[in-house]
TrEMBL record:
<keyword id="KW-0560">Oxidoreductase</keyword>
<dbReference type="InterPro" id="IPR036188">
    <property type="entry name" value="FAD/NAD-bd_sf"/>
</dbReference>
<dbReference type="GO" id="GO:0004497">
    <property type="term" value="F:monooxygenase activity"/>
</dbReference>
<dbReference type="Pfam" id="PF07992">
    <property type="entry name" value="Pyr_redox_2"/>
</dbReference>
<protein>
    <submittedName>
        <fullName>Thioredoxin reductase</fullName>
    </submittedName>
</protein>
<dbReference type="GO" id="GO:0050660">
    <property type="term" value="F:flavin adenine dinucleotide binding"/>
</dbReference>
<dbReference type="InterPro" id="IPR050982">
    <property type="entry name" value="Auxin_biosynth/cation_transpt"/>
</dbReference>
<dbReference type="InterPro" id="IPR023753">
    <property type="entry name" value="FAD/NAD-binding_dom"/>
</dbReference>
<feature type="domain" description="FAD/NAD(P)-binding">
    <location>
        <begin position="61"/>
        <end position="385"/>
    </location>
</feature>
């Protein structure tokens, strides 16, 4: 809708002569008569005719990120016939996942793909992988994400090597209100060759994730003194200990910091390495006094591979293969020049006083945080604690939720004061380590339905949950390092947490004679589902489950 165009004579009129729902239609002075509604929302709800004249008609939806959630958004946009572009900073689809390609997911293939994506793939002759197989990150990319990025409906709309620098409104900064909603969104992107381009869009779906934005090793959310100078001694959360990076860890001392599943995965890989490489030592440092949450629910976990991870880690600590240092808060790192100049000294406080741990390499499995700098010129409404959309934040708060108890949610929970802007996938969870791929798939299905004008479909938030959980007769006892559950890229649940597992606190829709081999039974969970609805983990959820047990 242009601010200079005359009012549509066919549009319903407000008592003061303005377009319905606002005080003055199609002028810079227009305001919603309901202060809780945006101008566009007010006009749409009232059936105002001049909404159809918006300036951004015919512009594409821009999707940021070509990971699982971003490509699922593209698949839904393609199915609904909406124009779109996908911007991926990496050299290929799934580039971030390729960085932890050696890690195996918690859940089998049957729960790792999006429905719209499967429909597009199957039309090309694609055959779904064995449904009960636990894929690695590399297999997820090779057998799902890359083929999906090449289907005819998506291939020409995905630009790789395209890093988004900023999102804004064309012609106005974040302070400008008058006429704001009549202008299209603008995405500034820098390509691998250095070229910078501005792309106008009717909507932006930010599925850029959090990979590459690690939390610091230091306390209080800040880097420790000397952390930057010690960078040569620090690795990311998921090094390929048994493969590409083996020489860095074999026969050396590694300090793993963090209490997410990425830390657990790396610790178990190091324990496997130590069996064959003399002199390999492993220290695990955690800030808290309890590791019960990471040990998990064992056999009670709805995802057996996730339960097995905690069970194996607990056994490795109790056997002495891994030295556990609790209540260790890092304050300083002192490193010699270069990674081969000698060990790094990591100083921390403990209840007993200051302590120094020395190690050749420090694995920072401390989680991730979202890149919000790119959104400084658009109006986002984020929870101050989690940095997630304010309506979503209470549903995912890690103080009370694990990835097992986050209820389904859709477009209304993800909307911001900036119409047409959505944060989805792992980025929508901000700093909360509770994300599941299945949740991201449902997010974008709902968002795209809303963009297509199907409010009913957008508000009917659903998840396909298995009847009684993901079953297998060999996962829990499997002890080969290459077949363990995956660690999260965010230090908590993350994408590699897999997807669906048994709903907790929900009655089974039908009685199952055996969950092993049974097909999923769809369960509709609407907006506002109770907080207890989710996926069974076998433990009290969130940080409230951190209380130490006698055997932990």
């Amino acid at each position: 809708m242009s601010t200079t165009e005359p009012q549509d004579p066919a549009a319903p009129q407000a008592a003061d002569g303005g377009c319905c729902g606002v005080n003055a239609c199609c002028t810079d002075a227009e305001r919603s008569t309901d202060p809780t509604r945006t101008v566009i929302e007010a006009k749409t709800d009232a059936g105002c005719g001049c909404v159809a004249d918006r300036r951004d008609d015919g512009l594409p939806v821009v999707v940021i990120g070509a990971g699982p959630t971003g490509l699922a958004a593209a698949a839904h946009l393609a199915e609904r016939g909406l124009d779109f572009q996908v911007l991926e900073a990496g050299p290929q689809a799934g580039a971030a996942i390729a960085g932890w390609g050696h890690v195996r997911l918690f859940s089998p293939w049957r729960y790792d793909t999006d429905a719209a994506a499967r429909r597009l793939l199957e039309a090309t002759g694609w055959t779904a992988p064995a449904p009960d197989h636990l894929p690695t990150g590399a297999e997820l990319v090779r057998d799902y994400l890359l083929p999906l990025s090449r289907v005819p409906q998506l291939a020409d709309r995905i630009r790789t090597g395209a890093r988004v620098l900023a999102v804004t409104r064309q012609g106005v900064d974040v302070t400008r209100t008058i006429g704001r909603e009549s202008r299209p969104l603008l995405v500034r992107v820098r390509y691998a060759d250095g070229r910078v381009q501005d792309i106008t869009a009717r909507a932006v779906i930010d599925a850029s994730g959090t990979w590459g934005r690690p939390n610091p090793l230091g306390h209080s959310g800040l880097p420790a003194v000397g952390e930057r100078e010690a960078a040569a001694h620090i690795t990311g959360p998921l090094p390929d200990v048994l493969g590409r990076d083996r020489s860095r860890f074999a026969g050396r001392h590694t300090l793993v910091v963090g209490m997410g599943h990425s830390a657990a995965n790396t610790l178990l890989a190091l324990a496997e390495l130590a069996r064959t490489e003399p002199g390999t030592r492993i220290t695990w440092a955690v800030r808290g006094s309890s590791v019960a949450r990471l040990y998990g629910g064992g056999d009670a976990d709805g995802l057996p591979a996730r339960g097995a991870l905690g069970t194996r880690l607990k056994a490795a600590v109790q056997s002495g293969a891994i030295e556990l240092v609790r209540s260790f808060t890092i304050t300083r790192l002192d490193a010699p020049g270069g990674p081969d100049g000698g060990p790094v000294a990591v100083t921390g406080t403990t209840p007993e006083g200051e302590r120094v741990l020395t190690a050749d390499t420090v694995v920072a499995a401390t989680g991730f945080r979202p890149d919000l700098d790119m959104l400084r010129e658009v109006r986002v409404e984020l929870d101050p604690a989690t940095e997630a959309p304010v309506r979503l934040a209470p549903l995912i708060d890690p103080n009370f939720h694990s990835c097992g108890t986050v209820p389904p949610h859709g477009e209304r929970d993800l909307a911001h004061p900036e119409p047409g802007l959505y944060l989805v996938g792992m980025k929508s969870y901000g700093r909360a380590p509770t994300f599941l791929m299945a949740t991201g798939y449902e997010q974008v299905r709902s968002v795209v339905a809303a963009l297509a004008g199907n409010r009913e479909a957008a508000d009917t938030v659903r998840l396909d949950l298995p009847e009684t959980g993901v079953c297998s007769t060999d996962l829990v006892t499997e002890d080969r390092a290459g077949n363990t559950a995956a660690g999260e890229a965010d230090g908590g649940c993350g994408t590699s947490c897999g997807t669906d597992a048994a709903p907790s606190g929900v009655a089974e829709p039908v009685e199952a004679a055996s969950c092993c081999g049974s097909s999923p039974e769809p369960v509709a969970l609407g907006v506002g589902a109770p907080a207890g609805v989710g996926f069974a983990t076998g433990r009290v959820h969130g940080h409230s489950g951190d209380a130490e047990r006698g055997d932990s």
